[in-house]
Specification:
CATH class of the largest domain: Alpha Beta
Number of helices: 13
CATH superfamily of the largest domain: Type I PLP-dependent aspartate aminotransferase-like (Major domain)
Radius of gyration: 22 Å
Strand content: 5-15%
Number of domains: 2
CATH topology of the largest domain: Aspartate Aminotransferase, domain 2
Structural class: alpha/beta
Shape: globular
Length: 389
């Protein structure tokens, strides 16, 4: 990374007060607030407390800005984007809205995050669909087993962009090619890659993409967005409708209009009014990503991931459990060792914030982390090995 970019990331750290107290490697669980997000939320709280200004039009304007911003981040058009409450919101649009009939098959990985599985499970039970699992290999998604699992009844493949527990970045291009070949709907849970991995949903032929923004996008909990491909929107059943699914042109002085057209855009599938505080927080956070750039954030994170991986590869005591194949790398690195739970407690005691997931320590690195923090982690791992190895 060149000097200018290094300085940009160093400057971005000043927005994150936690760096003075802890080393945070847990963004894959939830992202810490920046002062930008905090200040935006507090400002809106103060506006609402003063009650001397109607800020609803500001909220609608910010929502439009968010739709445009998220669209640019994933290679979509603003009309393709809707604002939701979490990843599950968009997954539910897919599971209960796609044109499926009894007996149609849904394929998901057998190492998926529960949000995706439970959504499709509920839809399968209600709509009399068949939910089948694609067998993983060494706990990684298997393209070969995906192809084996497809039958004449397969109608949907639904996967995560990046796997939550080991950081395995799925080959969405390869999966998309298979879906196109068999005329299968392609639905992606994007939360563990959104904000740190470049993606173009249109080029990939993704039909529905959904992501919460509380993790890598560093926004408040309970907010997110979804993408609905233009050619899929009119095929979806919409079991829930809101008055804001219609196009009021943000003109609310005549509410006795009951024949307004529904939006042609993905806004039609949003559910009424939104968490205004979340919108302000999302907007403040989005600006940081627009300033730094997703490709630059990826490069920054990969440098730090590589620094940690180089250390772990030299140690017999520790074993990397993430895939180190280039196309499957992400901002998550996992490793294991003897006395894993003891190691986790030891790191937390030393103010290294991370988690244990599925038998490994999960390190998730983001834009506010730096080399010094990785070196601190490495030093503690050395210390632990000496005392326990």
């Amino acid at each position: 990374m060149n000097k200018t970019l290094t300085q940009k990331f160093a400057s971005a750290r000043k927005y994150f007060p936690h760096i003075n107290k802890v080393i945070y490697f847990n963004t894959a669980s939830y992202g810490p607030f920046s002062t930008l997000v905090n200040d935006a939320i507090v400002e809106n709280l103060n506006t609402r407390m003063s009650a001397d200004k109607d800020d609803s039009h500001d909220a609608f304007a910010i929502k439009e800005k968010l739709r445009n911003g998220y669209a640019k981040m994933i290679g979509a058009d603003k009309d393709d984007i809707g604002i939701g409450q979490n990843t599950s919101f968009g997954l539910n649009i897919a599971a209960f809205g796609l044109p499926l009939k009894p007996g149609d098959e849904i394929l998901v990985s057998d190492v998926e995050f529960p949000a995706l599985v439970y959504t499709w499970r509920a839809a399968s039970e209600e709509r009399k669909l068949r939910l089948n699992f694609i067998k993983s290999k060494n706990r990684f998604f298997s393209i070969e087993n995906l192809e084996k699992a497809i039958t004449k009844n397969t109608r949907v493949v639904s996967v995560s962009f990046v796997q939550f527990f080991n950081g395995y970045k799925n080959d969405l291009a390869a999966i998309s090619d298979i879906c196109k070949k068999h005329k299968i709907f392609f639905v992606v849970d994007g939360i563990q890659g959104m904000g740190v991995e470049p993606i173009n949903v249109r080029e990939l032929g993704i039909d529905i993409f959904s992501s919460g923004c509380q993790k890598w996008m560093l926004a408040p909990q309970g907010c997110g967005f979804f993408y609905l491909a233009e050619n899929i929107r009119d095929k979806l059943s919409n079991h829930y409708m809101s008055w804001l699914s219609a196009d009021w042109k943000v003109e609310f002085t005549n509410l006795f209009r009951y024949n307004l057209p529904y939006f042609n855009s993905s806004q039609r599938y949003e559910m009424g009014y939104f968490g205004t505080l979340n919108l302000f927080g999302m907007n403040a956070s989005l600006g940081l990503f627009e300033e730094l750039g997703i490709k630059n954030i990826q490069q920054h994170n990969y440098e730090l991931i590589g620094r940690l991986a180089d250390y772990l590869n030299q140690k017999e005591y520790y074993t990397i459990t993430s895939s180190m194949e280039k196309k499957h790398l992400s901002s998550i690195l996992t490793f294991t060792c003897d006395k894993l739970k003891h190691l986790h407690r030891f790191l937390l005691k030393n103010k290294i914030i991370l988690v244990e997931r599925e038998g490994s320590i999960r390190v998730s690195i983001h834009l506010f982390n730096n080399h010094k923090e990785v070196d601190r982690l490495v030093g503690l791992l050395d210390e632990f090995e000496k005392d326990n190895g």
